[in-house]
Amino acid sequence: xxxxxxxxxxxxxxxxxxxxxxxxxxxxxxxxxxxxxxxxxxxxxxxxxxxxxxxxxxxxxxxxxxxxxxxxxxx
Length: 75
Description:
This protein has five helices and no strands. It is mainly α. The protein has a single domain, classed as Orthogonal Bundle (434 Repressor (Amino-terminal Domain)), CATH 1.10.260.
């Protein structure tokens, strides 16, 4: 059993909780993106793109302003 520390990410953590999902994989499926895309955002390899922000907006009903506030929490 490996102990992997998963870094917090305000946007992804909020989405998982708000959508009542289990994990990053379930979030990726819900949004229709790859698990790799979610992982790159969580581990800060890639920042959330404008396309990703619009996708979150379309799929969740969160405003762009709310999404941007969640992203800025991690800055």
